[in-house]
Amino acid sequence: MLGSLGALASSTCWLFAVTALVLFVSDESRAQERVSDKEIYHLAVDYCRGPLPRPMALSAVQMLVCFDGWIDDGMDLSSVRGLKDHGLFVVRSLGGHAETAITLSNLLRDRHATVVVYDYCMAACADFLFVASDHSYVLADALVAWRDPLAGLAGCTSLKAPREDGPKRVESVPCPGATSAELHKYDAAVSAVDRFYSERVADPKLERPPIGFDIRRSVVQLFRETGVYPNVTWTLSPRYRGAFRTNIFYEAYPKSQEEVDAIAARLHLGRVIYDP
Questions:
Q1: Percent of the chain at pLDDT above 70?
Q2: 18 touches 34 (CB < 8 A)
Q3: What is the pLDDT of residues 201-251, one digit of tens each?
Q4: Between the CA of residue 30 and those of 20, 63, 94, what are the distances in Å?
Q5: For a FRET experiment, which of 29, 86, 113, 207 has its CA 20 to 30 Å from that of 184?
Q6: How would DSSP label each residue in 159-193?
């Protein structure tokens, strides 16, 4: 068992492991074998890649939710509400609506679900779902890529000094002359995002969105070249795992920008900056 995911060794989750074998493996001799957490996650991903309703489906035993798609404003979250405690939430998503992602994240946290990422978890998926609950597990050759959840919400962009040392941060801000309605919408979004991270970070110095120094310099340089918020996402080095309350495990975090570029090209993703 993976030490950081020891909670899944509980009797409830062991029952799920046995159930997973019955659901996902047709060979009876294979179903007699003891499985590891890793095997359970891979079996669950194989199941979620299959012919299921999209974007979200709840398994018959209510221990697995498959989510594959865009996080839409007002989307039906009944599948997650039906998920039993300590179940799995298997996700592949390019991101989407921040407020809905926060609501979904809170449902996952309340159920102590383990989030399993395959292929990609981008923007709002990384910003919120990836650190939603107690445990997150990333399969090899998958990308978790972050982006400021407030990017594009306001019409202007500025550089802001961080709370800690290091280069400035690029942030979306209301433009001069913004209406009271626009300011209210922006302030409400900032409050919701800040509240989300205050409940999930272990290091109070970590600002949203989480971003390493090297990535911050790259984003600032892109902003200075174009004058607009850069249309990029970025990985976050495993060395930042301790900044979150979520126990995060990567099967194989990418080793270089070239590896990230190859994964992004294979999956037809946009530009992703590598955090070593």
A1: 87
A2: no
A3: 998 777 777 888 889 999 999 999 988 889 999 999 999 989 999 999 999
A4: 12, 21, 34
A5: 207
A6: EE--SSSSS-EEEEEPPTT--HHHHHHHHHHHHHH
Query: Are 271 and 256 in contact, with CB atoms under 8 Å apart?
Result: no
> How many Å apart are CA 172 and CA 159, to the nearest integer?
9
pLDDT at residue 193, as a whole number: 95
Nearest to 216 by CA among 143, 261, 161: 161
CB-based contact 141:263 (threshold 8 Å): yes
Please, which residues have CB within 8 angstroms of residue 183's CB and are 6 or more apart in sequence?
Answer: 174
Could you report the per-residue pLDDT of 24-75, keeping only the tens digit for each? 433 433 443 445 899 999 999 999 999 999 999 999 999 999 999 999 999 9
